[in-house]
Amino acid sequence: MSRSSLGTALVTGASSGIGATYADRLAKRGYDLLLVARDAARLNTLAEKLAATYGIKAEALQADLTNRGEVRKVEKRLREDDAITLLVNNAGISSRTTILEGDIDYLDTMIELNVVAVNRLCVAAAQTFAKRGRGGIINIASVTALLAERFHGVYSGTKAFVLNLTQAINTEVAGKGVKVQAVLPGLTRTEIFERSGRSIDDFPPSMVMDAGDMVDASLAGFDQGELVTIPSLPNAADWSAFDAARTALAPNLSHNVPAPRYGVS
Predict the structure, then answer these.
(1) What separation in angstroms does the CA of 260 have from each of 22, 109, 256?
(2) Catalytic residue numbers, as ranges
(3) What domain count does the chain have?
(4) Residue 74 dihedral angles phi and psi, to the nearest 5°
């Protein structure tokens, strides 16, 4: 089967939920797929289904992205396979308990997956795509990146890292043919809650979006050239105002003397 003219989309965390939905939508658009996750059986089943449904090429690549050696295996493929034109950095895990009640080893695992693996693959994609003059990077963050006080501090911190990384890399690849997006979903109906010992049904239904709607909105934002997409946000001007207020701080974030309000002479 010939390769797609759009190239191949590498999707992490592709065996279920948001990742599997991205795989479906991208295959429908005509992308070939390289699907990455730990569950080889589910990956192979999904790859076969999408290849048969959409007439594209779909390959499963089993990898545990909490293992740095496995991350480097995916990175190597990303750097060396000229057909890969899009990275969807989706793999991640959520919190199980509060920080005070939590298992610190589990939190380390969360950082390995949500930060270290995401960073490694995002940077590899940015470097590779910039050299080629073509490519796209979609990093899945979370609205918790903006509301740390209301959520688990380590989880929201990992998602704030993803947002910051995306914004910074976008500046570096400007004019090099690389399109970058951070997606900040709210509560989304996926297996991530059950895996962390909770249920999505514990939340008001009005706050929970189906994965299909979330991905469709996010891809619409990607098509429109949004750097930051918040699928549930009704007014884009609210984000623009928030971002403008943030950047307005820049001239006063670093001076050679303390601000007069501290009374330090």
Answers:
(1) 51, 43, 12
(2) 155
(3) 1
(4) -70, -40
Question: What tens digit of pLDDT does each residue of 159-191 get?
Answer: 999 999 999 999 999 999 999 999 999 887 776
Is position 68 within any domain? yes
Of 172, 175, 89, residue with least CA distance to 138: 89
Please tell me whether the overall predicted TM-score, pTM, comes out greater than 0.90 for this model.
yes
């050696």: which residue's tokens?
69
Domain ranges, residue 179:
8-237
Place of tokens 């008001």: 204
Strands (E), 65-145: 84-89, 135-140
CATH number at residue 21: 3.40.50.720
H/E segment holding residue 62:
strand 58-62
Mean pLDDT throughout 134-155? 93
Q: Closest by alpha carbon to 220, among 183, 173, 249?
A: 183
Give me the phi and psi of 88, to 5 degrees please: -110, 105
Q: Say if 254 falls within a structural domain.
A: no
SS3 (DSSP) at 64: coil
